[in-house]
Structures are given as structure tokens and as C-alpha cells.
Amino acid sequence: MQPLGEPGPGLRFEQRWQQAVDGALASWGSELSLVMVSDPARAQILIHRRRPPLLDAQGRRRASHGRALLELLEVERQGAWRPEPRVLVLLSPDQRLEALQATALHELGHAIGLWGHSDELGDAMAAVPGAQPKLSLSARDRATVRWLYQQPSRFGPPP
Ligand SMILES: [Zn+2]
After folding, report:
1. What's the pLDDT tens digit per position in 117-158?
2. pTM
3. Helix segments in the chain, DSSP class H
4. How far is the CA of 117 from the centre of ligand 1 (A)?
5. CA of 78 relative to ligand 1 center, distance in Å
6. How many C-beta atoms surround the C-beta of residue 157 within 10 A?
7. Is 144 helix (H, G, I), strand (E, B) or coil?
8. CA 127–ligand 1 middle distance (angstroms)
9. pLDDT tens, 9-59?
10. 95 C-alpha to ligand 1 centroid (Å)
11. Which domains does the chain have, with CATH numbers?
């Protein structure tokens, strides 16, 4: 997670952003173990306080407050090279706290592997955000991530 900047007029907004991201991390953290690392080079999920670009990776115009971008890397761990996913999450700080946390919850869902969307408005992974920001996971969100993490993976166990 991008660290806070210098004290100044912007710090309050950065703290709000951090609070929102912490809340979203705590929600997913109740379903799987998320380990915070201080070295960005070791992170599999990088969260940046930045508005996503107007054009998406396919060159389509898409204004949004959050985006998750997947890369596949070859990483050396304990002397062996292995393929690993790395996800860059861009989260704009220009939202109110609740909307920010809902966006963070949704984009982090993508980052941990839920690349599809739900057609149920009550889910954090709903394709379209509902009128009320989703600050917590629905039973369906939880069941989906539990199912996903029981599936075999060619990536092997986390380091
Ligand atoms: Zn999405």
C-alpha cells in the first residue's frame, strides 16, 4: 500500500484513503490470509493512491475510481524461478470515505482473484455499484472466494 506523504493539507485526504483501504483489506482478510510486506518488490498486490487512466488496457474510454491490472511475472523465490501473478490496484482518492471503501473492496476482490462480476446488486463484486456503497462482503462474496481458493492452481502455494 502506498505510504502516506508529508504532513500538509493533503494528509487528511491520504488518511481517509488509507482508512478506506484498511477497511477493505480487513474484510477480505477475514476470508484469507493477507500478508503486508514493506518491500514493494515482494508484494503480489500493489495498491496505489492514483486515479486510473481514462483509457483502459484495451484502449477503451472508461472513467472509473478504481482499477485492478493483472501481470504475470517470473519471480525468483528461494533460488527457484516460478510464475506469479502481480496485481496493480489503482484507487483514486477523490471519493467520499464510504464510496472509496466500496471501490477498494471491489477492486481488491479482483486483485485476490475474483476477476468475474456478480449479477447480484448486494454483492461487493456486483458489476454495477448499487445506490448504497457496499462496505462488507455478502455471503455470496465469501462463498465465492472460499470456493476459488479450494481450486487447484499451477502457481503453487504462496511463498
Ligand atoms: Zn470490477
Report:
1. 999 999 999 998 888 999 999 999 999 999 999 998 777 665
2. 0.89
3. 11-29, 97-111, 139-148
4. 6
5. 34
6. 5
7. helix
8. 6
9. 788 889 999 999 999 999 999 999 999 998 988 899 999 999 998 887 788
10. 17
11. 11-148 (3.40.390.10)
